[in-house]
User: Fold these one by one.
Assistant:
Number 1:
Amino acid sequence: SAWGANFTSPGKGARAAPTLQRRTNGDAVEASPQTPSGPMFTSSKMSEASRRPHRTLAMRERAAERNGARRVVVDSRRRDLSDHLPVPGEPPAFPFESGGSYVGEWRRDRKEGFGKQTWSDGRLYEGEWRDGKRHGKGSLWTRSGGKLVKNYAGDWDRGRKSGLGVQRYANGDAYEGEYAAGERHGTGSMRYADGGTYEGGWARNKRSGLGVYEAANGDRFEGHWCDGVKEGPGRYFYASTGKIYEGEWVDGAPRCGSFRDATPEEANGTLPSADEQFSLPALSLLEPEALLAKRVAELRQLRANATEDVVRAFSEDELAVLRHVFTLEDKQKAGLVPAVRVGYLLERCRLPVDAVSVERLLGELGADDDTRVTLAEFVDMAALLMSA
């Protein structure tokens, strides 16, 4: 018949029997030979797929990763359509909106290298990235009044400000200095919008340690701070009177100290005119230096009790013994005793302090035969030796 074909299995070395295809006019023509074990027909797509190298799932995932420079990657987020009412005849609202964009370098689907990120609220960051977070040098802008304003420029560590940086705040303040874990921490200076300035130590976004604050009216404080307020020894210069208060501060307020006229150097050229000067009333305290030293010692011990530092804090009875021994040695009632007598006085107080430790402490303090110490200093030295 016209559809016949020889499908007998050929012997070894024999030619495979041809297949026959029928034309529309009924004639039979010879087509390419087919072996009995192979398919009766093949697909070009199947043959191309069979020639491709096999790729595992991990290989395909690596091939799909974003690596190197990418022009724009847009983040999308779902819109809140709870209050949206459909309008008849119009298509439904699109359920997604743009959440921001990133232009820059990638490594294994994470931002890595240099890039620019824009958020939907108008913020913009341009700088270095690592592992998908701001890391290295970079600048952050925020939108204010329809304009981009540089908010921070400096160092970043795993998405937070860390290192040296400059920041400008919305209220007009400006800070330049050290950061740690996203907070002002270390040494830095602040220019306030009201004209005041501060330069010194910071801890957790608050003034801490030794620092100098100068108000817009010329007043100036030089001394110690804790948790944002004056705490410890310090001096305050009053520009309107040319006077200086020097003494101990507790929770931002002066507790014990003395007033005196400021020298031209201390006033830094801002002393008022002579007609603005006034005289303070004369004081007539009994043993004023001893009284002042006693109060300073009490305040410092109260502060030692309130802090977590490993410093010996004396009880009221222990303070009374230290004060009694100090007073017996202070025969001139001046509130001062020789530094070389500290070891002897501590022995009289029956404190377990050895002479070698006392000599070492006096050497570290640079004390000599002419050095005199107050009661507060004597108590501080005893606390240090007991804490060693």
Number 2:
Amino acid sequence: MSELALGVARNQGSRNFSDSSANTGGSNSSDDDIVSELTPLVGDSSELAQERRPFLTRNSSDNSLHTVVPLAGMLIRSHVISASIDNRYGGQVCNIRPSSTKAALRAAQQERRGLIRKMNEEPKEEPSVNASANVERESYWISIETPPRPTDEMFSFLRQLRMPSFFTSRLSEPNCWATEVIALKFVSLAIFQVIPLDPNSDEVHFVALLGMPMLLVTFSPLASSDLEQGQGFHNLTMQYMKKRERVHEPSNSGLTLAWLQFHVRRTARALKELSLASSRLDHELDSNVLSFNFQSLVDTKNCLLKIRSIAHEQFETIEALALAEKSTMGLDFSNCQGALSMLRANAASNDRISGRIDKHLNEIRERVMSHREDTLNQRMSLLTILSAVFMPLTLLTGIWGMNFEEMPELGMPGAYQKSLGGMLVLAISMVLCFYRSGWAR
């Protein structure tokens, strides 16, 4: 797929923007190692000689942090990951160090060219798995965090990366993102739903991962206030990745798995808090059902619905990535199957746990509603008893209230007192009868 070539612009007959100090191999670097400010992430090198934007004519030294010009308020950070031997505990350890975007792009381009050369050469005897696994290599990670921007402005920025047009169009509208995985021959794109920086926020937050051989690019839209205060996913992810054995392999695939594992663990922590909250609600309901706060149950349920949706989307995206690895060179989980299996197991566990918490909250809600129905039934039973007690009394008052000329009871001595006494005895008798039959208990 030549339109996806990770090539470098060869400025034939024009100004050369390369910097000789950028070549890690010293003065013996070839033209293939030249990196200019027109370096793309994904694109066709033949297009670069035809288009030179004014804002891309910056000095491209190794000390330059960005070769892709960021927009105002946008943060672009580059890191290199390599393997080393742990002298204290033994074994291989992955180290993450600051780097430059230019170094990351150059490494990705050289890797891309090597893959193309191998594909064009005649088939040769394939190296053994152990031989390929022992080759020490470095990989790079470019993190892009940006506040909300107009679609046209974001589209113009993403054109610097020389991605396929539908990638550029898709990424330029973060408000329309949805979880999906797209795998091309040398590039893979995954849009992943994550918990927002503020867990109490009602917004739906997505991040994008662009995977290529030796390079991972993460794209995170964040609020301007979070970026100004230095609160972004990049800092949190770096704290996680720098711990021992967080990154299982110094490759873009190892970085991808570690990055996904970080967000899956955030989801697991949120589910753990919800599980504890549901247990507290259950205890409160058992302790004193009359003082139970039903609004707390409603708030916990609403929070669970958001987290459960995220857990399910994460599980589906990770499963899709595991399948997409077979059809793209942008992902290679062959040397980190253990980390992939752990990630898939954790995502599946989050999906199951969210379902169990949902079931538990539904049971608590049913118990609360059942208690309310019991209370209502008791009140209706009391009203029924009172109605039954006063029905014969109402009948007697209705009879004695008739305006007939001859009513012997009216002329009886002490008729009023006797009628009241009879009504009282009748009412007490009915109450005792209901009590003995269990109606008034």
Number 3:
Amino acid sequence: SEEEMPALWQKPWGDRRTELVVIGQDMDNEAITAALEACVLTDPEMDEYIETFLDAQPLDIIDETKVDGELAEKIKKYKIEILAPKRNKTQILTQAPKSSEVISAHSCLAVYQGDKGGVAGFQIKRYLRYAHLIPDLASGLVKEFQLPLDSADMQTALLVDETVGSVLSQTIAYLEEGDKVELEWLQIRVEYDTPINEQRFRIIQQCQKLAKLEADVENALIDQYPQPQIMIRKDQMCGPGPGEVAKETKTGGKTKQEKTKKRKGKKGKRR
């Protein structure tokens, strides 16, 4: 309320209050409280933060020509590899990329919405798995997926060594509006071999799996993934291993971490 605001307001930051609600079963309240308390800055740490960041600007608005050395290189790299592909709409791959890196990975149950203007649409009904690999670019969980039909097969041929089963356009041709499907796709940052920095990196989406769902298969997947498996890179969870991805899955109330290597170059097989 307005009456409470003066007590909560702290210059120069404003309202510094944080309210966190944790809901679960069989939780260790004391351990959770202790872990949160350990995150609170000490006065010396806060003073150091103020000295370092009070007048700082985000990398996307700093002019690298007005700084030098390592900072200038970091700003330039951020603008080329992060801001430039973010500012452009998702692209269609028209030539083999110089390199590629997965930004996010999606595995879902979806409903086919039909072909509208040469674009196949899918409404996401349930996430099975999601990997969040490059936070500055990853889309997060989405509600829809669109697949341009005139370029899907060509892009697949540019990215993978071989495919299993029908090509995407043939699979979609057999679908009817309202059909349930199992759908997997990757959000990928590709690098082109060009001297123009602003055009070096682009974001594409590549369908990895598209299969019409039978009721028994759907039920089996729901049983296997009663809740979505959310995966994040290990270096976002503390204690990273170079080039590794951490998977967190719930098994019997305990957390299990599995390591997988980050893939580079061509993107495996499409099933």
